[in-house]
Amino acid sequence: MAIPNFLLALVLIARVAGGGMRDALSLLDQALAFGEGAVTAARVRDALGLIADELYAELLGIVAEHRPEAVFPFVARLVEAGADLAEFVNGMGEVLRGLAIRLLGGEPQGLTDALRHTIDRVAQRFSTGDVLRMLQLLQDAESAIRRSANARLAVETLLLRYALLD
């Protein structure tokens, strides 16, 4: 069952707020001020500078197709767009978690329809073991990425390791 878009927007706000009610209200105000009409997940991403679903889909394609040469231009585009690399890695963890759930026969929750569709499309190209290794690599690299003076290099290394998995 798909989660309504306004609930996905609230999930994104809650994640960014880290459990802080005042922070969540402030973030909701930012999203409301960013445009008119209903607050959607896409609007929250735009207002808060979060990573677009299409980039996670693109990365899954790079990894599934074992294209390590595509990692450097991909990360360069993230950096040029001003993306928070720690936020990108956090979102990648959610995508990989959803992929693992799908591979184990479950229904991933808390993802947009676009990401769920992407996961359904690429799932057969990954083994459960690959996804578990990717999650472990991410967990090992996450704190280094957050405190690194060169987060770009840490993210590039992580994504290269993903693309070079057997």
Textual characterization of the structure:
- This protein is mostly helical.
- It is built from 9 helices and no strands.
- Helix 6 crosses helix 7 and helix 6 (85-103) packs antiparallel against helix 8 (128-147).
- The chain is globular and about 45 Å long.
- The mean pLDDT is 89.
The low-pLDDT segments are none
Number of strands: 0
Amount of helix: over 70%
Strand content: under 5%
Q: What order do the SSEs take from the amino end to the carboxyl end, as H and E? A: HHHHHHHHH
Radius of gyration equals: 16 Å
> How large is the count of helical segments?
9
Helix/strand structural class:
mainly alpha
Largest sheet: none
Separation of termini? 33 Å
Shape verdict: globular
Kindly report the average pLDDT value: 89
Oligomer: single chain
Secondary structure topology:
Elements: H1 5-17, H2 21-33, H3 41-48, H4 53-64, H5 71-80, H6 85-103, H7 113-122, H8 128-147, H9 151-163
Keywords:
166 residues; mainly alpha; 9 helices
Concise description?
The chain has 166 residues and is mainly alpha-helical. It contains nine helices and no strands.
